[in-house]
Design a protein that fits this description.
The chain is α/β, with parallel strands linked by helices. It has three domains: 117 residues, Gyrase A, domain 2 (2-Layer Sandwich), CATH 3.30.1360.120; 129 residues, Four Helix Bundle (Hemerythrin (Met), subunit A); 167 residues, Rossmann fold (3-Layer(aba) Sandwich). Helices cover 42% and strands 17% of the residues. Strands 3-4-5-6-2-1-7 form a seven-stranded mixed β-sheet. Strands 9-10-8-11-12-13 form a six-stranded mixed β-sheet, with helices on both faces. Strand 4 and strand 5 form a beta hairpin. Helix 6 packs antiparallel against helix 7 and helix 13 runs antiparallel to helix 14. The two termini are 16 Å apart.
């Protein structure tokens, strides 16, 4: 882990813009800047939360005119003295500014090091630090809302409430040990059970939100499946607004999964165009079909695409009361949308209730399909500020906490003494605390795994 006593520097904005921001943080942040900054007064003499106009100089040569924003410890993002230099966005100007600051005593920051320092200095907990990276990477309103709620501490507050309740229970149990000879029972066992069961329900609810949270963070996976020539690739191109997938009348053209991301009504979807489902002797096509089944297994929503021209016309040509059943299985938590394509080639065709008729080639019915996709993802809880779990690490910790709580309830049923029951509950506290790292600093392995995913300068 890098030293938090060094002063670090990195660009905080992506290259190519009209303006750029270079961030400096550490005990010598002001002194390092003063070695190259010329303004009305040294930055070391400036008050916090003030902005100063000046020049960056290199051996008497002016590199650029800048604005320097001064932050004083501990009331800064990192909890340290910090300066943000706003300069012109030229790659040359930014490069020269970084070079001069390194020569003045700064070290180039590692990915996520500013946020790591904020965590180490108690400015945010571990789950809030993870939310910073999610906020930067968010590409839809839903993902942004979820990350913002977590970064503001709403998620942490829910976990801390559970943790504090469990700590209160252990305190009562451990108080009984001081009065063991009198056989005093401070923690009423009936109330203890009710409280533990309620907490168990809240842990289960948080754990259950992971399917939604992870889908919103990564993009809701939508598998578009059907027989060859049903129009899957044309539909993906229509939804994406781009020619991403190859379209051909030749059956079996799509042999691998093609993925495209699209935002529908502020939710990010990952559309998966898959190989057509059919019996074939072609080895490569069979491999593609196997990947289709894999895509179905990991999708939150499955769009089953049928070809209107291939539907049975033997009974009533234009009034379809039933459709053939899917030739694949789904889990209870998956949504199935049945879509009939090429309705332009079957004018007057009536479809069963709940079936969406479209013409991917002409664009007919696409708005209805978009609405159905959006309706398949319930985000009401998210916009009401409810805590939603979006990280696998958090889900695993909640799963362990749930198991530990079950063990504590079993210990209560067995009538174990207060000290052993307290130890079982403390295991629950440990797993909940590992999400926010409240009360302890996470291991270097955990920190390295989290902060290595950050961009430079954050």
């Amino acid at each position: 882990m890098p030293s938090d006593r060094e002063t670090i520097v990195a660009p905080a904005t992506a290259p190519g813009g009209a303006l750029a921001v270079v961030r400096i943080s550490g005990p010598e942040a002001l002194a390092c800047c003063d070695r190259i900054f010329r303004g009305r007064q040294p930055l070391a003499a400036a008050e916090g939360y003030t902005v100063h106009y000046g020049r960056i100089v290199d051996d008497g040569r002016t590199v650029d005119d800048v604005l320097a924003t001064v932050f004083r410890a501990p009331r800064s993002y990192t909890g340290e003295d910090a300066v943000e230099l706003s300069c012109h966005g030229s790659s040359y100007v930014v490069g020269e500014l970084l070079r001069l600051l390194r020569e003045a005593g700064c070290r180039t920051a590692e990915p996520g090091e500013f946020t790591l320092r904020a965590y180490l200095n108690g400015k945010m907990d571990l789950s809030q630090a993870e939310a910073v990276a999610d906020l930067i990477a968010s590409s839809s309103r839903a993902a942004h809302t979820m990350a913002s709620t977590q970064m503001r501490g709403g998620y942490s507050a829910a976990l801390d409430t559970l943790r504090d309740e469990l700590l209160r229970l252990t305190a009562l149990l451990e108080l009984e040990l001081d009065f063991s000879e009198e056989e005093v029972e401070f923690a009423d066992r009936g109330e203890l059970r009710r409280t533990m069961e309620r907490i168990g329900g809240e842990i289960a609810s948080l754990r259950g939100s992971f399917a939604l949270g992870n889908a919103l963070r990564e993009g809701v996976a939508v598998a578009i499946v059907g027989a060859p020539n049903a129009g899957k690739s044309t539909l993906l191109n229509r939804l994406a607004g781009d020619e991403r997938a190859m379209v051909s009348d030749i059956a079996g053209t799509t042999r691998d999964v093609v993925e495209e991301r699209v935002v529908i009504d502020q939710v990010l979807f990952r559309l998966l165009d898959t190989a057509g489902l059919r019996t074939t002797d072609d080895r490569l096509e069979r491999m593609g079909i196997e990947r289709t089944h894999s895509s179905i297994a990991r999708a939150a929503v499955v769009v089953r695409l049928l070809n209107a021209t291939a539907l049975d016309k033997a009974t009533t040509p234009d009034d379809m009361t039933t459709l053939p059943p899917p030739d694949f299985s789904l889990r209870d938590d998956q949504r199935l949308l049945t879509v009939v394509n090429k309705i332009d080639l079957r004018p007057g065709l009536t479809l069963p209730a709940g079936t969406i008729g479209i013409s991917a080639r002409e664009g007919r019915g696409i708005d209805a399909l978009r609405a159905a996709l959006r309706a398949a993802v319930d985000t009401e809880a998210l916009y009401h500020g409810d805590a939603v779990v979006s990280h696998t690490r958090h889900y695993a910790a909640l799963d362990e906490a749930g198991r530990a709580l079950d063990a504590a309830l079993a210990a209560l049923d067995q009538g174990l003494p207060a000290d052993l029951l307290s130890e079982e509950i403390r295991a629950v506290i440990h797993h909940l605390g590992s999400i926010t790292s409240r009360g302890a600093i996470a291991s270097e392995e955990v920190l390295a795994s989290i902060f290595s995913k950050f961009c430079i300068g954050k």
